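pinned: reference chain
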Amino acid sequence: MTLIVLYLATFVLFLGLDFIGLSTLIKPVFEKSIGSLLLDQFRLLPAFLFYAFYVAVLLWFVSWPAITQDKSLIWVLGNAALIGALGYGTYEFTSLAVMKDWTAQMVATDLTWGICLTAVSATGGVWIARLLA
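pinned: its structure tokens
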């Protein structure tokens, strides 16, 4: 039951925070350089698949070990930030390397957001799971 609470709490936090971040932080920066490439409405299935898989990986490497090995929330925050840097950094630096209109500002904004989003979501998920367990 703890694993289900952990997954759901992390997933809801990640989804909710990312909705806010995408609309207020990321979209304005990306519209400046690649606005003509952005959809008016995102595609639900690919977004859901990304969120579901990303949160599962986050639980596998960070959140579940924190629960089962009684790691601190600071440990969760730091390790989740590393997962965020890896995931978002892979996307951003690859895009910067191969896309002609990709900018350093886009990389810095999305990478910073991804690190913070991943760290806060994982830490919040572990905190909620511990609170409810």
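why pinned: The chain has four helices and no strands. The CA atoms of residues 76 and 123 lie 6 Å apart.
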